[in-house]
Design brief:
four-stranded antiparallel beta sheet; GMP Synthetase, Chain A, domain 3; Rossmann fold; 3 domains; nine-stranded mixed beta sheet; binds zinc ion; 456 residues; alpha/beta
Protein backbone atom coordinates (compact mmCIF):
# COMPACT_ATOMS: atom_id res chain seq x y z
CA UNK A 1 0.00 0.00 0.00
CA UNK A 2 1.26 3.40 -0.97
CA UNK A 3 1.45 5.92 1.86
CA UNK A 4 -1.03 8.76 1.41
CA UNK A 5 0.47 12.26 1.47
CA UNK A 6 0.88 13.51 5.06
CA UNK A 7 -0.52 16.83 3.86
CA UNK A 8 -4.06 15.36 3.95
CA UNK A 9 -3.87 14.77 7.70
CA UNK A 10 -2.26 18.14 8.19
CA UNK A 11 -5.10 19.86 6.29
CA UNK A 12 -7.68 18.00 8.38
CA UNK A 13 -6.01 19.19 11.59
CA UNK A 14 -5.75 22.77 10.36
CA UNK A 15 -9.45 22.71 9.42
CA UNK A 16 -10.37 21.36 12.83
CA UNK A 17 -8.21 24.00 14.56
CA UNK A 18 -9.96 26.76 12.62
CA UNK A 19 -13.34 25.61 13.91
CA UNK A 20 -14.67 23.97 10.76
CA UNK A 21 -17.57 21.60 11.45
CA UNK A 22 -16.81 17.90 10.97
CA UNK A 23 -17.50 16.79 7.41
CA UNK A 24 -16.79 20.21 5.87
CA UNK A 25 -14.55 19.92 2.80
CA UNK A 26 -11.34 21.81 1.99
CA UNK A 27 -13.30 24.05 -0.43
CA UNK A 28 -15.41 25.41 2.41
CA UNK A 29 -12.29 26.07 4.52
CA UNK A 30 -10.60 27.84 1.60
CA UNK A 31 -13.74 29.86 0.85
CA UNK A 32 -13.93 31.12 4.44
CA UNK A 33 -10.21 31.96 4.43
CA UNK A 34 -10.32 33.86 1.12
CA UNK A 35 -13.29 35.91 2.36
CA UNK A 36 -11.36 36.68 5.53
CA UNK A 37 -8.26 37.59 3.53
CA UNK A 38 -10.20 39.93 1.24
CA UNK A 39 -11.81 41.62 4.25
CA UNK A 40 -8.50 41.86 6.10
CA UNK A 41 -6.52 43.16 3.11
CA UNK A 42 -9.20 45.73 2.30
CA UNK A 43 -9.17 47.01 5.88
CA UNK A 44 -5.40 47.06 6.43
CA UNK A 45 -3.69 47.87 3.11
CA UNK A 46 -4.07 51.01 1.03
CA UNK A 47 -3.46 48.97 -2.13
CA UNK A 48 -6.38 46.57 -1.64
CA UNK A 49 -8.59 49.25 -0.08
CA UNK A 50 -8.45 51.08 -3.41
CA UNK A 51 -8.52 47.91 -5.49
CA UNK A 52 -11.41 46.16 -3.74
CA UNK A 53 -13.39 49.20 -2.60
CA UNK A 54 -16.66 48.02 -4.09
CA UNK A 55 -16.34 44.36 -3.21
CA UNK A 56 -18.31 42.86 -0.33
CA UNK A 57 -16.38 39.76 0.85
CA UNK A 58 -19.67 37.95 1.55
CA UNK A 59 -20.49 38.20 -2.18
CA UNK A 60 -17.79 35.54 -2.76
CA UNK A 61 -20.09 32.52 -2.55
CA UNK A 62 -17.88 29.85 -4.09
CA UNK A 63 -14.23 29.39 -5.03
CA UNK A 64 -15.30 30.01 -8.66
CA UNK A 65 -16.28 33.56 -7.60
CA UNK A 66 -12.63 34.22 -6.75
CA UNK A 67 -12.05 34.54 -10.53
CA UNK A 68 -13.98 37.84 -10.38
CA UNK A 69 -11.32 39.44 -8.16
CA UNK A 70 -8.61 41.53 -9.84
CA UNK A 71 -5.09 40.12 -10.21
CA UNK A 72 -2.04 41.29 -8.28
CA UNK A 73 1.11 41.56 -10.44
CA UNK A 74 4.83 41.31 -9.59
CA UNK A 75 5.10 44.99 -10.57
CA UNK A 76 2.66 45.87 -7.77
CA UNK A 77 5.17 44.44 -5.27
CA UNK A 78 7.89 46.66 -6.68
CA UNK A 79 5.86 49.84 -6.80
CA UNK A 80 3.66 49.52 -3.75
CA UNK A 81 5.48 47.93 -0.82
CA UNK A 82 4.17 50.38 1.79
CA UNK A 83 0.68 50.31 0.27
CA UNK A 84 0.54 46.51 0.40
CA UNK A 85 1.79 46.19 3.96
CA UNK A 86 -0.99 45.26 6.39
CA UNK A 87 0.88 45.46 9.70
CA UNK A 88 3.01 48.06 11.43
CA UNK A 89 6.71 47.92 10.51
CA UNK A 90 7.65 46.67 13.99
CA UNK A 91 5.55 43.54 13.46
CA UNK A 92 7.54 42.68 10.32
CA UNK A 93 10.04 39.92 11.01
CA UNK A 94 11.60 39.67 7.57
CA UNK A 95 11.65 41.64 4.32
CA UNK A 96 12.89 39.93 1.16
CA UNK A 97 14.07 42.02 -1.78
CA UNK A 98 14.00 40.25 -5.13
CA UNK A 99 15.56 41.76 -8.22
CA UNK A 100 13.47 41.29 -11.33
CA UNK A 101 15.97 39.41 -13.46
CA UNK A 102 16.71 40.61 -16.97
CA UNK A 103 15.05 43.98 -16.58
CA UNK A 104 15.86 47.34 -15.05
CA UNK A 105 12.54 47.32 -13.16
CA UNK A 106 12.76 48.17 -9.45
CA UNK A 107 13.11 45.14 -7.15
CA UNK A 108 10.09 43.43 -5.56
CA UNK A 109 9.83 43.57 -1.78
CA UNK A 110 7.82 41.14 0.32
CA UNK A 111 7.29 41.22 4.09
CA UNK A 112 6.51 38.45 6.61
CA UNK A 113 5.56 38.43 10.26
CA UNK A 114 6.98 35.81 12.63
CA UNK A 115 3.61 34.03 12.46
CA UNK A 116 3.72 34.01 8.64
CA UNK A 117 7.11 32.32 8.79
CA UNK A 118 5.89 29.83 11.37
CA UNK A 119 3.19 28.75 8.91
CA UNK A 120 5.90 27.93 6.37
CA UNK A 121 7.83 25.96 8.99
CA UNK A 122 4.61 24.04 9.67
CA UNK A 123 4.20 23.23 5.95
CA UNK A 124 7.86 22.19 5.61
CA UNK A 125 7.54 20.03 8.74
CA UNK A 126 4.60 18.06 7.33
CA UNK A 127 5.81 18.09 3.73
CA UNK A 128 9.26 16.78 4.69
CA UNK A 129 7.67 13.99 6.72
CA UNK A 130 6.77 12.40 3.35
CA UNK A 131 10.31 11.06 3.17
CA UNK A 132 12.16 12.17 6.32
CA UNK A 133 11.97 11.10 9.97
CA UNK A 134 13.99 11.33 13.18
CA UNK A 135 16.52 8.75 11.98
CA UNK A 136 17.66 10.95 9.08
CA UNK A 137 20.66 13.19 8.66
CA UNK A 138 19.78 15.91 6.17
CA UNK A 139 22.15 18.23 4.31
CA UNK A 140 20.52 21.37 2.91
CA UNK A 141 22.27 22.92 -0.10
CA UNK A 142 20.12 26.06 -0.01
CA UNK A 143 20.83 29.53 1.44
CA UNK A 144 20.45 29.42 5.20
CA UNK A 145 22.67 32.08 6.73
CA UNK A 146 19.93 34.69 7.26
CA UNK A 147 17.14 34.24 9.79
CA UNK A 148 13.94 33.39 7.92
CA UNK A 149 15.81 32.23 4.80
CA UNK A 150 14.70 28.97 3.21
CA UNK A 151 17.57 27.05 4.83
CA UNK A 152 16.73 28.52 8.23
CA UNK A 153 13.02 27.59 7.93
CA UNK A 154 14.00 24.07 6.77
CA UNK A 155 16.32 23.75 9.78
CA UNK A 156 13.45 24.64 12.11
CA UNK A 157 11.12 22.17 10.35
CA UNK A 158 13.71 19.38 10.53
CA UNK A 159 14.18 20.08 14.25
CA UNK A 160 10.43 19.51 14.73
CA UNK A 161 10.83 16.16 12.94
CA UNK A 162 13.77 15.28 15.19
CA UNK A 163 16.08 14.86 12.18
CA UNK A 164 19.68 16.02 12.18
CA UNK A 165 20.26 19.00 9.84
CA UNK A 166 23.37 20.52 8.28
CA UNK A 167 22.75 23.79 6.41
CA UNK A 168 25.56 23.95 3.85
CA UNK A 169 24.23 26.71 1.57
CA UNK A 170 24.26 26.75 -2.25
CA UNK A 171 27.07 24.74 -3.88
CA UNK A 172 29.81 26.80 -5.44
CA UNK A 173 32.52 24.15 -5.22
CA UNK A 174 31.72 20.45 -5.43
CA UNK A 175 34.69 19.07 -3.47
CA UNK A 176 33.68 20.69 -0.20
CA UNK A 177 30.01 19.82 -0.73
CA UNK A 178 30.87 16.15 -1.29
CA UNK A 179 33.12 16.12 1.78
CA UNK A 180 30.17 17.41 3.84
CA UNK A 181 27.94 14.62 2.49
CA UNK A 182 30.47 11.99 3.57
CA UNK A 183 31.32 13.58 6.91
CA UNK A 184 27.70 14.04 7.98
CA UNK A 185 26.77 10.52 6.74
CA UNK A 186 23.79 12.14 5.03
CA UNK A 187 20.70 10.10 4.23
CA UNK A 188 18.70 12.99 2.69
CA UNK A 189 19.65 16.02 0.67
CA UNK A 190 17.71 19.18 -0.20
CA UNK A 191 19.01 21.32 -3.06
CA UNK A 192 18.80 23.07 -6.40
CA UNK A 193 18.39 20.65 -9.34
CA UNK A 194 21.34 21.59 -11.57
CA UNK A 195 23.69 21.97 -8.59
CA UNK A 196 22.92 18.50 -7.28
CA UNK A 197 23.33 17.08 -10.79
CA UNK A 198 26.79 18.65 -11.02
CA UNK A 199 27.62 17.30 -7.55
CA UNK A 200 26.54 13.75 -8.42
CA UNK A 201 28.60 13.74 -11.62
CA UNK A 202 31.60 15.17 -9.80
CA UNK A 203 31.31 12.44 -7.13
CA UNK A 204 31.18 9.65 -9.71
CA UNK A 205 34.17 10.93 -11.65
CA UNK A 206 36.40 11.86 -8.72
CA UNK A 207 35.65 9.40 -5.95
CA UNK A 208 34.26 6.29 -7.71
CA UNK A 209 35.43 4.00 -4.89
CA UNK A 210 33.22 5.80 -2.35
CA UNK A 211 29.71 5.82 -3.84
CA UNK A 212 27.17 8.17 -2.33
CA UNK A 213 24.04 6.38 -1.09
CA UNK A 214 21.03 8.44 -0.07
CA UNK A 215 17.48 7.61 0.87
CA UNK A 216 15.86 10.68 -0.61
CA UNK A 217 16.56 13.94 -2.37
CA UNK A 218 14.28 16.98 -2.47
CA UNK A 219 14.70 19.34 -5.42
CA UNK A 220 13.44 22.91 -5.28
CA UNK A 221 13.82 26.40 -6.70
CA UNK A 222 14.05 25.70 -10.43
CA UNK A 223 12.72 23.66 -13.34
CA UNK A 224 13.40 19.97 -12.76
CA UNK A 225 14.44 18.23 -15.98
CA UNK A 226 13.50 14.51 -16.08
CA UNK A 227 17.16 13.85 -16.95
CA UNK A 228 18.19 15.26 -13.57
CA UNK A 229 15.80 12.98 -11.70
CA UNK A 230 17.00 9.84 -13.47
CA UNK A 231 20.67 10.79 -13.14
CA UNK A 232 20.37 11.43 -9.38
CA UNK A 233 18.34 8.27 -8.75
CA UNK A 234 20.85 6.16 -10.68
CA UNK A 235 23.99 7.56 -9.10
CA UNK A 236 22.78 8.03 -5.51
CA UNK A 237 20.33 5.08 -5.34
CA UNK A 238 17.72 7.43 -3.93
CA UNK A 239 14.18 8.60 -4.56
CA UNK A 240 13.88 12.15 -5.86
CA UNK A 241 10.98 14.37 -4.77
CA UNK A 242 10.05 17.80 -6.08
CA UNK A 243 8.96 20.95 -4.24
CA UNK A 244 7.44 24.03 -5.85
CA UNK A 245 7.52 27.36 -4.08
CA UNK A 246 8.46 31.00 -4.44
CA UNK A 247 9.31 33.79 -2.02
CA UNK A 248 5.94 35.46 -2.58
CA UNK A 249 4.23 32.30 -1.21
CA UNK A 250 6.42 32.41 1.89
CA UNK A 251 8.84 30.00 0.16
CA UNK A 252 6.71 26.85 0.45
CA UNK A 253 4.02 25.97 -2.11
CA UNK A 254 3.52 22.32 -3.04
CA UNK A 255 5.37 19.03 -2.64
CA UNK A 256 5.31 15.55 -4.15
CA UNK A 257 4.11 12.52 -2.19
CA UNK A 258 5.47 8.97 -2.31
CA UNK A 259 3.61 8.35 -5.57
CA UNK A 260 5.55 11.23 -7.15
CA UNK A 261 2.70 11.91 -9.52
CA UNK A 262 2.21 15.64 -9.07
CA UNK A 263 2.65 18.19 -6.31
CA UNK A 264 0.19 18.26 -3.41
CA UNK A 265 -0.59 21.89 -2.73
CA UNK A 266 -0.26 23.78 0.54
CA UNK A 267 -4.05 24.08 0.78
CA UNK A 268 -4.39 25.45 4.33
CA UNK A 269 -2.42 28.57 3.40
CA UNK A 270 -2.65 28.99 -0.37
CA UNK A 271 -5.39 28.91 -2.98
CA UNK A 272 -4.08 28.00 -6.44
CA UNK A 273 -5.70 28.71 -9.80
CA UNK A 274 -4.55 28.20 -13.39
CA UNK A 275 -5.47 30.94 -15.86
CA UNK A 276 -4.99 31.59 -19.56
CA UNK A 277 -1.87 33.83 -19.67
CA UNK A 278 -3.37 35.97 -22.43
CA UNK A 279 -6.96 36.52 -21.30
CA UNK A 280 -6.64 35.81 -17.57
CA UNK A 281 -9.69 33.53 -17.74
CA UNK A 282 -9.60 30.35 -15.64
CA UNK A 283 -8.76 27.18 -17.58
CA UNK A 284 -10.12 23.69 -16.91
CA UNK A 285 -8.29 21.14 -14.79
CA UNK A 286 -5.79 19.35 -17.01
CA UNK A 287 -5.15 22.38 -19.22
CA UNK A 288 -1.88 24.30 -19.04
CA UNK A 289 -1.79 27.95 -18.07
CA UNK A 290 -0.24 30.43 -15.67
CA UNK A 291 -0.14 29.61 -11.97
CA UNK A 292 -2.00 32.19 -9.86
CA UNK A 293 -2.24 31.99 -6.09
CA UNK A 294 -3.89 33.80 -3.19
CA UNK A 295 -2.54 33.64 0.34
CA UNK A 296 -5.18 32.52 2.86
CA UNK A 297 -3.44 33.10 6.20
CA UNK A 298 -0.62 35.64 5.72
CA UNK A 299 -0.77 38.74 7.91
CA UNK A 300 2.09 41.03 6.82
CA UNK A 301 1.41 41.13 3.10
CA UNK A 302 -1.49 38.99 1.92
CA UNK A 303 -1.59 38.60 -1.86
CA UNK A 304 -4.82 38.13 -3.77
CA UNK A 305 -4.64 36.37 -7.17
CA UNK A 306 -0.90 36.88 -7.63
CA UNK A 307 0.38 36.17 -11.17
CA UNK A 308 3.46 33.97 -10.80
CA UNK A 309 4.51 33.79 -14.47
CA UNK A 310 5.01 30.03 -13.97
CA UNK A 311 3.43 27.58 -16.39
CA UNK A 312 1.74 24.43 -15.10
CA UNK A 313 -1.65 22.71 -14.85
CA UNK A 314 -3.86 21.07 -12.25
CA UNK A 315 -3.81 17.29 -12.65
CA UNK A 316 -7.33 15.93 -12.80
CA UNK A 317 -8.42 12.94 -10.74
CA UNK A 318 -7.21 11.46 -7.47
CA UNK A 319 -3.52 10.81 -6.73
CA UNK A 320 -2.24 7.20 -6.83
CA UNK A 321 -1.27 7.71 -3.15
CA UNK A 322 -4.98 7.64 -2.29
CA UNK A 323 -5.45 11.35 -1.66
CA UNK A 324 -8.31 13.08 -3.43
CA UNK A 325 -6.77 16.54 -3.04
CA UNK A 326 -5.90 18.30 -6.28
CA UNK A 327 -2.32 18.28 -7.47
CA UNK A 328 -0.21 20.71 -9.45
CA UNK A 329 1.81 19.24 -12.32
CA UNK A 330 5.55 19.88 -12.50
CA UNK A 331 6.11 23.53 -13.42
CA UNK A 332 7.21 23.65 -17.04
CA UNK A 333 9.01 26.98 -16.87
CA UNK A 334 8.54 30.68 -16.55
CA UNK A 335 6.58 32.63 -19.14
CA UNK A 336 8.94 35.55 -19.41
CA UNK A 337 12.02 33.38 -19.33
CA UNK A 338 11.65 31.96 -22.86
CA UNK A 339 13.39 33.83 -25.70
CA UNK A 340 11.75 34.37 -29.09
CA UNK A 341 13.62 32.94 -32.06
CA UNK A 342 13.51 34.46 -35.53
CA UNK A 343 10.53 32.48 -36.76
CA UNK A 344 8.46 33.28 -33.68
CA UNK A 345 9.18 29.99 -31.92
CA UNK A 346 10.22 30.22 -28.30
CA UNK A 347 13.19 28.58 -26.61
CA UNK A 348 13.61 28.17 -22.87
CA UNK A 349 16.29 26.94 -20.53
CA UNK A 350 13.97 23.99 -19.81
CA UNK A 351 14.17 22.93 -23.50
CA UNK A 352 17.97 23.08 -23.35
CA UNK A 353 18.04 21.21 -20.00
CA UNK A 354 15.92 18.42 -21.49
CA UNK A 355 18.21 18.13 -24.51
CA UNK A 356 21.60 18.46 -22.85
CA UNK A 357 21.55 17.27 -19.24
CA UNK A 358 20.91 13.63 -20.17
CA UNK A 359 24.53 13.51 -21.36
CA UNK A 360 26.60 12.06 -18.51
CA UNK A 361 29.58 14.13 -19.67
CA UNK A 362 27.83 17.45 -18.94
CA UNK A 363 28.28 19.01 -15.50
CA UNK A 364 26.50 22.32 -16.10
CA UNK A 365 25.96 24.88 -18.84
CA UNK A 366 24.89 28.44 -19.51
CA UNK A 367 23.27 29.90 -22.63
CA UNK A 368 23.29 33.27 -24.38
CA UNK A 369 21.73 34.60 -27.53
CA UNK A 370 23.56 37.32 -29.49
CA UNK A 371 23.19 39.33 -32.67
CA UNK A 372 25.73 37.90 -35.11
CA UNK A 373 27.00 39.46 -38.36
CA UNK A 374 24.49 37.58 -40.50
CA UNK A 375 22.04 36.03 -38.07
CA UNK A 376 21.43 35.38 -34.40
CA UNK A 377 23.96 33.27 -32.53
CA UNK A 378 23.08 30.85 -29.72
CA UNK A 379 26.18 30.21 -27.64
CA UNK A 380 26.22 27.45 -25.03
CA UNK A 381 29.07 27.28 -22.56
CA UNK A 382 29.16 23.68 -21.44
CA UNK A 383 31.23 22.54 -18.48
CA UNK A 384 32.42 18.96 -18.98
CA UNK A 385 32.62 16.41 -16.19
CA UNK A 386 36.06 15.44 -17.47
CA UNK A 387 38.26 15.86 -20.56
CA UNK A 388 38.04 15.38 -23.46
CA UNK A 389 35.03 17.54 -24.07
CA UNK A 390 32.86 16.26 -26.91
CA UNK A 391 31.37 19.45 -28.31
CA UNK A 392 30.12 17.70 -31.48
CA UNK A 393 28.04 15.30 -29.38
CA UNK A 394 26.59 18.18 -27.38
CA UNK A 395 25.71 20.08 -30.56
CA UNK A 396 23.88 16.98 -31.85
CA UNK A 397 21.90 16.80 -28.62
CA UNK A 398 20.93 20.48 -28.79
CA UNK A 399 19.79 19.97 -32.39
CA UNK A 400 17.24 17.42 -31.25
CA UNK A 401 15.21 20.56 -30.36
CA UNK A 402 13.29 20.57 -33.60
CA UNK A 403 12.50 24.30 -34.13
CA UNK A 404 16.11 25.13 -33.30
CA UNK A 405 17.44 22.58 -35.77
CA UNK A 406 15.11 23.88 -38.47
CA UNK A 407 16.47 27.42 -38.08
CA UNK A 408 20.06 26.19 -38.18
CA UNK A 409 19.44 24.15 -41.34
CA UNK A 410 17.86 27.18 -43.00
CA UNK A 411 20.90 29.33 -42.07
CA UNK A 412 18.85 31.59 -39.85
CA UNK A 413 20.62 30.77 -36.60
CA UNK A 414 24.18 29.86 -35.66
CA UNK A 415 24.94 27.47 -32.83
CA UNK A 416 28.24 27.67 -31.01
CA UNK A 417 29.29 25.27 -28.26
CA UNK A 418 32.11 26.48 -26.06
CA UNK A 419 33.87 24.27 -23.58
CA UNK A 420 33.60 25.89 -20.15
CA UNK A 421 36.92 26.21 -18.35
CA UNK A 422 35.58 26.42 -14.82
CA UNK A 423 35.15 22.75 -13.96
CA UNK A 424 31.93 21.93 -12.11
CA UNK A 425 30.81 25.49 -12.28
CA UNK A 426 27.32 25.94 -10.91
CA UNK A 427 25.04 28.87 -11.24
CA UNK A 428 24.12 30.16 -7.81
CA UNK A 429 20.57 30.25 -6.52
CA UNK A 430 19.05 32.51 -9.16
CA UNK A 431 16.72 30.83 -11.63
CA UNK A 432 18.70 30.07 -14.76
CA UNK A 433 17.70 31.71 -17.99
CA UNK A 434 18.95 32.22 -21.53
CA UNK A 435 20.76 35.56 -21.54
CA UNK A 436 19.27 37.49 -24.46
CA UNK A 437 21.94 39.97 -25.57
CA UNK A 438 20.52 40.64 -29.03
CA UNK A 439 20.34 44.22 -30.15
CA UNK A 440 16.75 45.37 -30.05
CA UNK A 441 15.46 45.38 -33.60
CA UNK A 442 11.77 45.52 -34.33
CA UNK A 443 12.18 43.81 -37.69
CA UNK A 444 13.90 40.76 -36.22
CA UNK A 445 11.58 39.71 -33.48
CA UNK A 446 8.03 39.09 -34.63
CA UNK A 447 5.54 41.07 -32.60
CA UNK A 448 2.85 38.43 -32.91
CA UNK A 449 2.66 34.67 -32.84
CA UNK A 450 1.72 32.00 -30.37
CA UNK A 451 3.19 33.14 -27.09
CA UNK A 452 4.21 29.74 -25.84
CA UNK A 453 4.14 26.16 -26.92
CA UNK A 454 3.51 23.58 -24.27
CA UNK A 455 5.44 20.38 -24.55
CA UNK A 456 4.30 17.50 -22.35
ZN1 LIG B 1 -0.23 11.76 -3.62
Amino acid sequence: MMEVTPLDDWMARRMHASGMPPGAGPERYQLERIRETVGYARTHSRFYRARLAHLDPSSIRSLADVARLPFTYPGDLAAGFADLLCVSPREVERIVTLSTSGTTAPPKRIAFTAADQELTVDFFHHGLSTFTDRTDRVVVFMPGAAEGSVGDLLRRALAKLGADATIFGPISECGQALETLFRSRASCVVGIPCQLLALSRYARSRVPAKPVRLKSVLLSADYVAPAIISALEASWHCRVYGHYGMTEMGLGGAVECRARAGYHMREPDLLFEIVDPGTGAPVKDGEFGEVVFSTLTHRAMPLIRYRTGDLARILPGPCPCGSSSKRLDRVRGRMHEAVKLEDGQSLSMADLDDALLGDPGVSAFSAELETGAERDLLRLTVHPVREPADTARWAARVRTIEPLDRLIRRNRLDLEIVRGNVPFFTTGTAKRRIADRRKASAGRVPARGTPFTFAE
